Amino acid sequence: MFHTESDVVFVKGLKVEAVIGVYAWERAITQPLLIDIALETDISRAAVSDDVNDALNYKAVCDDVSAWCKEIQAKLLEHLAGQISDKLLAKYACHKITLSVAKPTAITQADAVGVQITRYASTSTDELAIKEAAEEANNSQADDV
Ligand SMILES: Nc1nc2c(c(=O)[nH]1)N=C([C@H](O)[C@@H](O)CO)CN2
Q1: Under DSSP, is residue 20 helix (H, G, I), strand (E, B) or coil?
Q2: CA–CA separation, 103 vs 53, rounded Å?
Q3: E.C. number, please (predicted)?
Q4: What are the structural domains, with CATH classification, of the chain?
Q5: 130 lines ligand 1 (CB under 6 A)
């Protein structure tokens, strides 16, 4: 089987309403966030099997990221981006994440403002296998929905 380390599963323009911001008035409302994520992973097994259980499931990623944004209620976009990428690397079998989080309504004169970060996993092969098994179990449950 052909293996590659440069495959990507991506999410573009995920919209989440969450408490975010430094100022007191921002703590009392929700604002829209626009999130792009690129998860570098090996898709070769799913490419052959055509089985979602072998894939890094982008539906699960979207559900998790939306829930984490609402939970975290960060002041800074930097904090939110750091927390989300740590959680994604801990849960999903990927070795690199590029994540951008934008506030499209924060600055009237700008289309959007935000941050983009890149983070790498420091996982051993064993840890990666454990995450793949957990993902497979998660995906099996998703099949039933
Ligand atoms: N680098 C950042 N600068 C600013 C942030 C931020 O999260 N990162 N946040 C704000 C305010 O919350 C702003 O969005 C209100 O308009 C200001 N600067």
Answers
A1: coil
A2: 34
A3: 4.1.2.25
A4: 8-143 (3.30.1130.10)
A5: no
114 lines ligand 1 (CB under 6 A): no
Considering the entire predicted model, what is its pTM?
0.88
What confidence tens digit (pLDDT) does each residue in 14-50 have?
999 999 999 999 999 999 999 999 999 999 999 999 9
Residue 29 Cβ inside 6 Å of ligand 1? The answer reads no
Which contacts (CB < 8 Å, 24+ apart) does range 113-117 have? Answer: 114/34, 114/77, 115/77, 115/78, 115/81, 116/81, 117/78, 117/81, 117/82, 117/85
Residue 71 CA, ligand 1 centroid: distance in Å: 19
CB neighbours of residue 45 within 10 Å: 14
The DSSP letter of residue 28 is T
pLDDT digits (tens, 9 = 90+) for 57-111: 999 999 999 999 999 999 999 999 999 999 999 999 999 999 999 999 999 999 9
CA nearest 21: which of 74, 72, 63? 74
**pLDDT of 135:** 75
